[in-house]
Specification:
Elements lengths: L21 H13 L4 E5 L8 E2 L1 E2 L7 E5 L3 E7 L4 H19 L5 E3 L2 E3 L3 E6 L23 H8 L9 H17 L6 E7 L14 E6 L7 E5 L7
Parallel strand pairs: 1-2, 5-8, 8-9
Antiparallel strand pairs: 1-4, 3-6, 4-5, 6-7, 9-10, 10-11
Helix pairs in contact: 2-4
Length: 232
């Protein structure tokens, strides 16, 4: 009797021994940036050079899940050197968000359900505080803000300054989500960094931060340092 051995990866399990591709390099960089003693980072698949994995009940799945004591985030990662990649990522983020809002997606780690507080779009430029490349001034930092944005920044609901194209994309995600379900408590937005805030405007030491909108949450606009203690 001949027994055929099947690689566990055929069943979305086991270890993927492929060489590190460009997207995985970004996943790895962001994972190292996000990981801290008070939070964990999980990948959608197991890699020899990766992290632990998460599960989700839908076929659609983001690249990373970040868990912490206060918030849990699902993150779609894209290369930011081509605008089309970032635009595609925004569409995927909206789909993941919709799956959560409709009750179709359940996330788990180690067999335990994880409540996702927000779905975020990230790129290799997230540590610099924006999503798109800035070649030929593609995603320039704004020189000023509206009166309403100034007030929101002063109370910590949005960063002190933003990059123009990234700001527009995140606001569009907010509009699409609001039109779909203006009572949803799950947030939608982007992974940026503390480089957008005053004295911490140093991309070498910038901390991860989430900017997202949750129409049915405690407040609509949310600007949260992912190292939670820095929000105090």
């Amino acid at each position: 009797m001949v027994m055929m051995m099947t690689d566990l990866s055929d069943f979305n399990a086991g270890v993927d021994h492929d060489e590190q591709n460009p997207e995985d390099k970004i996943n790895r960089m962001l994972s190292n940036w996000l990981r801290h003693e008070d939070r964990r980072v999980y990948w959608d698949r197991k890699k020899t050079y990766g992290n632990g994995t998460f599960s989700v009940s839908t076929r659609r799945r983001p690249d990373l899940v970040v868990t912490g004591q206060q918030r849990n985030y699902a993150i779609e990662v894209k290369r930011g050197d081509q605008s089309s990649n970032v635009h595609d990522g925004a569409g995927q983020v909206f789909q993941y968000w919709r799956d959560l809002v409709d009750g179709d997606a359940t996330y788990s780690v180690g067999g335990k359900t994880v409540e996702i507080n927000a779905v975020l779009l990230a790129t290799d430029y997230s540590p610099e505080g924006h999503l798109f490349h800035n070649w030929k001034k593609k995603d320039v930092m704004r020189s000023g803000r509206s009166d309403g944005a100034e007030r929101a920044a002063k109370i910590g609901q949005i960063p002190q300054i933003e990059h123009a194209t990234s700001e527009t994309l995140i606001r569009m995600l907010h509009r699409f989500a609001r039109d779909y379900d203006d009572t949803a408590s799950v947030g939608i937005g982007g992974l940026l960094s503390s480089a957008l805030d005053g004295d911490m405007a140093n991309t070498d030491t910038a901390e991860p931060a989430a900017l997202y909108y949750a129409m049915g949450g405690d407040r609509v606009q949310n600007w949260e340092y992912i190292p939670w203690y820095l929000n105090d």
